[in-house]
Amino acid sequence: IFVCNMAQSLVELQQKLTESNRAYQQTVGLKRLNEEEKEKGRRTIHELESLSDAPAYRACGRMFIREPLPDLLSTLHTMMTKVDEQITALDKKSQYLSKQVKQDEDNLNEVVRVIMQQQQKGKQ
């Protein structure tokens, strides 16, 4: 009965570790995408600020809409603020998930250790 319960615990912990790893990797990927978006926005703002009176256009689906440069810059700054907030939230989430993965690994190792000890006792 004890070995059966330990085997069931082992399977559950393996599944939990797999889920935690998947969630962690997904969060890291989303953070990387947001950082790329932030860099693209930063470069766009830099380029737009170098323009003075040139016409500016914003993509809207498959067409472009002319927009005043200050409005376009304001929109980009707002977008950058939202991306920064998302990066901060994803960073906190990835730290939490990293700790969760470590804890799940430790729990799994502990169950394996206990099973190995029980097997050693059974051989003696």
Layout of helices and strands, plus pairs?
Layout: H1 2-50, E1 56-60, E2 63-67, H2 69-123
Antiparallel strand pairs: 1-2
Helix fraction? over 70%
Radius of gyration: 25 Å
Q: Largest sheet at a glance?
A: 2 strands, antiparallel
- DSSP helix count? 2
Shape descriptor: rod-shaped
Strand order of the largest sheet: 1-2
Q: Helices and strands, in N-to-C order? A: HEEH
The number of distinct β-strands equals 2
Protein described:
This protein is mainly alpha-helical. The protein is built from two helices and two strands; from the N terminus they run αββα. It has helices spanning 2-50, 69-123; strands at 56-60, 63-67. The chain has a two-stranded antiparallel sheet. A hairpin with a 2-residue loop joins strand 1 (56-60) and strand 2 (63-67). It is rod-shaped, with a radius of gyration of 25 Å. It starts with a helix and ends with a helix. The relative contact order is 0.15.
Q: Which features would summarize this protein structure in a list?
A:
124 residues; mainly alpha; two-stranded antiparallel ribbon
In short:
The chain has helices at residues 2-50, 69-123; strands at residues 56-60, 63-67. It is mainly α and 124 residues long.
